[in-house]
Amino acid sequence: MGRILSISNQKGGVGKTTTAINLAASLASAERRTLLVDIDPQGNAGSGLGFTTADYERGTIYDVLVGEKTLDEVILDTDLRYLQLAPATPDLTGAEIELVSMEQREQRLRQALDSVRDRYDFIVIDCPPSLGLLTLNSLAACDAVVVPLQCEYYALEGLSHLVKTIGLVKQGINPELQLDGILLTMFDARVSIAHQVADEVQKHFPNQVFRTIVPRNVRLSECPSHGKPILLYDIKSKGCEAYLSLAREIMGREPQRDVA
Ligand code: ADP
Ligand code: MG
Q: How far is CA 159 from CA 117, 150, 154, 237, 247, in A?
């Protein structure tokens, strides 16, 4: 059964999509059958892999969440043999509203993933920058949350809210949910605030911070406009090295690892 990871942080611009794409690609490069699921209406996970909306004529995750298509119908192959994509488009904004009146509205994604889960080793979900119904669906569906955190002054603001939300989801709809780790992103070793944020996060969340720290790396910011994961854009870059290392950390974990 595939392990389902939700890449979440209600802040925008912290590296969720970059992490979702490049973690998924790195897992796939290690021959782990991986599905990248986009539940952000901005659809950047797909565009970052070189897709445009013209490629989505079979449907998107919107159709799946509102019950008009099965997940299997909308899954696409990518340039990497072991990586597939379930794409999103701006339509998905509508789903957030339509779901409100549906039964088990926060379980729709979980139900959809159940139907394909046994075909994958990992399912990586790219979340929108909010704690609305779409993110809630992701938290309800996943085994663990990966929280990218940008190493800047206000990084910790909002983190306690996210941790509280994870706690509530765990008490309610998903008792097995784990915080699999906080991932420090866009780390710039020359900037003292970056070190302060890293130290503070380590102090507040001991044992819950990934050893891998993703550096600020211009190659990582370039690759989406080329429609490629960093692995296919610049395999020798520091950014690529970091996401391969993150993938190794995640593959090395026990499935039921308990974080105190
Ligand atoms: P989110 O999905 O949380 O909104 P993104 O992954 O889209 O965040 O990242 C926001 C911006 O920062 C994008 O332009 C992305 O290319 C860039 N970016 C992300 N991670 C890095 C990094 N490690 N180094 C440099 N730029 C990065
Ligand atoms: Mg994003």
A: 29, 11, 10, 29, 23
118 CB burial (10 A radius; 0-12, 13-18, 19+): exposed
Q: Of the ligands numbered here, which is closest to the C-alpha atom of 41?
A: 2
Residue type, 83: L
pLDDT at position 127: 98
In terms of Cβ atoms closer than 10 Å to its own Cβ (0-12, 13-18, 19+), residue 176 is exposed
At 252 the three-state DSSP class reads coil
Token readout for 70 is: 């099965």
Distance (Å, whole) CA 136 – CA 125: 12
Whole-prediction pTM: 0.96
Region class of 123: left (phi > 0), else alpha (psi between -120 and 50), else beta: beta
If phi > 0 it is left, if psi is from -120 to 50 it is alpha, else beta; for residue 102 that is beta
Give the residues of the chain that fall short of pLDDT 50. 256-260
Q: What is the pLDDT of residues 59-88, one digit of tens each?
A: 999 999 999 999 999 999 999 999 999 999
**Is the distance from the beta carbon of residue 185 to the nearest atom of ligand 1 less than 6 Å?**
yes
40 SS3 class: coil
d(CA 68, CA 91): 13
Q: Is 15 in the pocket of ligand 1 (CB under 6 A)?
A: yes
pLDDT tens digits for 27-39?
Answer: 999 999 999 999 9
Amino acid at 251: M
Q: Is 14 in the pocket of ligand 1 (CB under 6 A)?
A: yes
